[in-house]
Amino acid sequence: MSRATFRVSCDRFPGLFEFGVTVDVWQHTGILPPRVTCALIRKCGAAALRTLDERRSGVRASRVSGSPPDPPPSRPPAALGGNSGKGSRAARRGGNMFSRVKSAVVSFVGGVMSGPHSADHANAADQPLRFPYRRPEFLGLSADEVECSADHMARPILILKETRRLPWVTGYAEVINAGKSAVNEDQACCEVLVVQRRSGSCSTPSRTPTAKRRSSLPNGEGLSLRENLDSEGLVFHYWALFDGHAGSGAAVMASRLLQHHVVEQLQDVLEVLCNLAVLPPTCLGEEGLHETLVPHRSLSRASSLRGAAGAPGSPCAPPPRFFSEKKIQHESLVIGALENAFKEMDTQIEREKAVFNISGGCTALAICYLLGKLYVANAGDSRAIIIRSGEVIPMSTEFTPESERQRLQFLGYMQPHLLGGEFTHLEFPRRVQRKEVGKRMLYRDFTMTGWAYKTIQDEDLRFPLIYGEGKKARVLATIGVTRGLGDHDLKVHDSDIYIKPFLSCCPEVKVYNLTQYEHGADDVLVMGTDGLWDVLSNEEVADAVTSFLANCDPDDLHRYTMAAQDLVMRARGILRDRGWRITNERLGSGDDISVFIVPLMYGNRQP
Amino acid sequence: MSRATFRVSCDRFPGLFEFGVTVDVWQHTGILPPRVTCALIRKCGAAALRTLDERRSGVRASRVSGSPPDPPPSRPPAALGGNSGKGSRAARRGGNMFSRVKSAVVSFVGGVMSGPHSADHANAADQPLRFPYRRPEFLGLSADEVECSADHMARPILILKETRRLPWVTGYAEVINAGKSAVNEDQACCEVLVVQRRSGSCSTPSRTPTAKRRSSLPNGEGLSLRENLDSEGLVFHYWALFDGHAGSGAAVMASRLLQHHVVEQLQDVLEVLCNLAVLPPTCLGEEGLHETLVPHRSLSRASSLRGAAGAPGSPCAPPPRFFSEKKIQHESLVIGALENAFKEMDTQIEREKAVFNISGGCTALAICYLLGKLYVANAGDSRAIIIRSGEVIPMSTEFTPESERQRLQFLGYMQPHLLGGEFTHLEFPRRVQRKEVGKRMLYRDFTMTGWAYKTIQDEDLRFPLIYGEGKKARVLATIGVTRGLGDHDLKVHDSDIYIKPFLSCCPEVKVYNLTQYEHGADDVLVMGTDGLWDVLSNEEVADAVTSFLANCDPDDLHRYTMAAQDLVMRARGILRDRGWRITNERLGSGDDISVFIVPLMYGNRQP
Questions:
Q1: C-alpha to C-alpha distance for B284 and A363, rounded to whole angstroms
Q2: Which of A151, A157, A231, A452 has the fewest CB atoms below 10 angstroms from its CB?
Q3: A533 and A486 share a domain?
Q4: In chain B, which residues have their Cβ closer than 8 Å to the Cβ of A78?
Q5: Phi-psi region for residue A326, left (φ > 0), alpha (ψ -120 to 50) or beta?
Q6: What is the per-residue pLDDT for A583?
Q7: ipTM exceeding cut-off 0.90 for this assembly
Q8: Cβ of residue A477 closer than 8 Å to a chain B Cβ
């Protein structure tokens, strides 16, 4: 064995990505060690993998010639460890050679590749793509650059070019997975948008969105932060990350369209939102009535409540005399707009799947800044934190089979037909065996967080709706994330049991009042896909970012992108020993990793 | 007007309760001021009220003669303010005089009395009581003392007599409401219990509880804190508060029986619990198999997962080769035992309602100390906090129509028949009127925390499932608390719509590792019904308790009861001006108030 350190960069795209790698080089030893497999694939396999996968998914990209590597000896499944992919069920599909190559990659990175999912989308291959595969528009990559970045072995870290600038000089960096899927299934979007007044009145809004996207220029420079509502409309800033699974179609589509759904929802409430002096009217077009209401004279008794407005039991009740009226804040309208935007986005994917090939699903983490507040909408297992004076403020929570267990079990209990007679809504610590019928086994129901023993019966032999722990937890033995967009035709393998009813497209929205605080140059919001957070804690991220920024020139507008690059590097690690390694010899992330670092001080002034 | 200060005490029970009151005495002024009404009722009304209510509820108590007061002029409902009762729908029922008396009381205390609910229990009056009404057993009150304590005007604070002592010298104090219900619907229990081994084996447990209650003696003294599992069994300490509504039956029953359900559930896992050296076996009676499992070789792919044990799609799959097994901690078994104990208690109430009169429902807050940990199980809107070194550690969260809105709406959406065609699962800021059909009104669905506008349609004219804000929020226009025991026959007024499906008897259980910390004499756990927390914040309670205890002799074993009395006094306030007033001229609580103060230093040593 010999050790060698390489400086890796791409001659065709100098400055775009480069990094150092220390590699131990082994001789062939009978059973091919994973690192040698990777070296082989690195030479010619990545392009081959991509070519194969493109053919299936319909992704158009220039093909690179190259013969596949000698297939390495297949390894027993028991050797598979580490993170499994969210769409891992497809790992068995595909050609034999392809599978084996993937298997080797998987052995190396501790992950499972998601495949083309042709079985789930029987007709999808015949349909045109809704959008071609791409990397985030703001990176401004050519097709060749996109292809070069998708090297599962080198895993180059892509950053924003120095000539490009995002709103608020937001920093961005990303890296592809180590073989889990052929393409990087993360997607990102960062724009400044304007919600314009509709031509019609507010109470009879036109359904035609008239938003104007102001940052559709590849280079975001020159954008000025205007008054919240100028003659053009309401300006808002938007950052979003999407983590795709079982295909990149939903993630690409959501990264292109979700912001327009947000615009459309905000348009519905534009007039109300911009009239901060008055609380949003309960009913549009009857502000006159609203004025006559007696505030705080509310339901003090159920009887007055019920008598108030023809409530049940009093169908011919007189007009209301006393009733309460909940006061809704403007902030709640923005939250509602984001919630409904996610819903509309999901509905659009479902609708357009009838005519387009839109593969897979994706998580979505979208952040909007408007009217002085940051709104963080999260559906999935990405995460956003604010780092203020070095302290962490969590701005999202993750939605996983474990965190949503009780909701999912409750649904399975209420609608047992969704389980297709093959799953049980009860949770057991492991699979129940037939010989255990009649014995007492630990279980928990949707009402429980603790565990108790129950006598096993025949129906308990069904597979548990929620099964596995941590990153390996699955819903219906299929999916490891419980909120997001797409996945409409995802089914349990070899069955007609749909996953979608258990998934939710509804985000949780948290609000941060940006104008309430003074922010320094090192106060930032960090958004990352789960690839980042799987290996770094909030505190590790905060420490890394804070110490990195402290060593930067405060006037360097590229510092946030450099900090994002540093973060991705820390999460991916370097290729050493038997895989990607990070601090303290821990395993780096083999997943796609995408990171935005948004400086907060620009909420109130122009960078 | 003249002002007078009275020292109030009860001659028949010296030392049991006494307090000072400053009263402004008015002349009759046409519209009778509430304070005069109260003075009248105080003279003879409380007994009259009680007599009337006893006749309906079947509570047996010695009757006190006395004629009802002159009915005060009825006040417009608009003047009703403050807290409304949980079972407020019954306020309209009952005789005219009775209603008017109650109305006056209500005007005074800002609450609504819960009535006898004869309509809900058509046959209940013919059935025997499951348990007679009482105050907590450990108070050791005679029937006369119970009656004297139920003075809605004087509102004497009942405390533990000096000759009595609870485990850990726990402090206790309570006060009756200011007219909301005829009797104090709060109940309490504090005991030391022993879970004994069943005669049979663990895998075939006998269903006969063999627990021995060790503190059934009126005087808890002499109890020794033994080894966790001595020859007798597993000793545990138990404190519980129950806040009844719409009758006292469920609260009284739960205060007598819940602890035995806990014992029975713990019996199921006794052997496992006391074997701390080994994690609880997944399946009882097959520890041998358990040993052969390969740990941490788990589902890395859905395929191996599904193939593992005859999962869907592979009915004839071979025996499992690779599967994960979740490791369950002992702590989770205690949590599960508490969760199932609540469920069994609720089931028993439902079952026995067939033959007994068990009126109303109740919240339940139960705390168990065993094996070095405090387990706080809460179903309802009572609250427990730990005060350690003056800092507050919340040990429960409240379950209300607002905090459980999304769960309730989701259920209404999934099972619309539960809404009887009269309610909508959507929430609106106020009642929708027919003339608003076609207009756009604010709403939110079960998926939303924000609000958006929707075009009102005919079905939106139905009454909202959740309606009202804060203490006035109601489920199905009927009940203001969403978890607890009982309420099986509670229906929406004049309808066949049952409330119970929307209520949950499942507690949330939080754990505090008592042995992990050193506790001083002023470190305590405070349990209180909502009457306490409605008017005092966690911090106010912590400040009050901490400063009170600091001024006590540390060796005075009565100090925790004195602190509890102080707390109840602070929450009830004193009778002044137009009602019960506390600090800063705020309104005191007109609700029943019950408080335990549990010193934590006795977890590891005998008081």
A1: 40
A2: A231
A3: no
A4: 297, 321-322
A5: beta
A6: 86
A7: no
A8: yes
